[in-house]
Amino acid sequence: MTAILGYIGAMIPYMLIALPAILIFRLFYNKFRKRTNINRYHEIGVVIFLLFMTALFSQTILTFLYTGPAINHSFLNVNIVPFQVFKDNYFAITELNLWQPFIINFIGNICIFMPIGFMVPILWKKFDRFWKVSLVGFCISLFIETTQLTQYRSSDIDDLWLNTLGCMIGYQVYIIVKNRISAVDEIFKLR
């Protein structure tokens, strides 16, 4: 739990720094698009989404500001063996009695992408399809993992499918919410 709180604490300064820039960007974006009838809920949702993406990128690809564990730059930090995460977590739990790798690497990689799977379809009608949300999640994860190849970070093929699975679960949560509260689409999408 301490590690999760540490990640959240490390994200907050980035979000606070990004907030004014995001608000200014959205103001100019809407003026450029000549939008006069602005859906406030959509705008609030987009700002929250962009803040979330800032937080995600702050912990995954901004290595010059990275405060996590030190990793040597080598191909030993690259996992190209699918489902290695199961073996590694099983060993950590059974042999070392460590649950943190399971919570951070397995559960964390799923949970961190669930907001993307939920927010993308709720904010943008053209992404209100399971396969589109899954593709968005996969592409964002692929971007992160590819960027990490060039930095002093580890890169893992299992992160791709875990992150994409997180988006899929987030999309299913969106479907449940949409079915129970039918007005949710009307509230947050552009009119």
Separation of termini?
41 Å
Strand percent estimate: under 5%
Lateral strand order in the biggest sheet = 1-2
Please work out how many helical segments DSSP would assign: 8
Percent range for helical residues? over 70%
Number of strands: 2
Assembly form of the protein: single chain
Report on the architecture of this protein.
The chain is built from eight helices and two strands, in the order ααβααααβαα. α4 crosses α7. About 3% of the residues have low confidence. 21% of the residues are buried. It has a two-stranded parallel ribbon with strand order 1-2. The radius of gyration is 18 Å and the shape is globular. It has one domain. Helices cover 70% and strands 2% of the residues. By secondary structure, it is mainly alpha-helical.
Task: Give short descriptive properties of this protein.
mainly alpha, 191 residues, two-stranded parallel ribbon, 2 strands, 2% strand, single chain
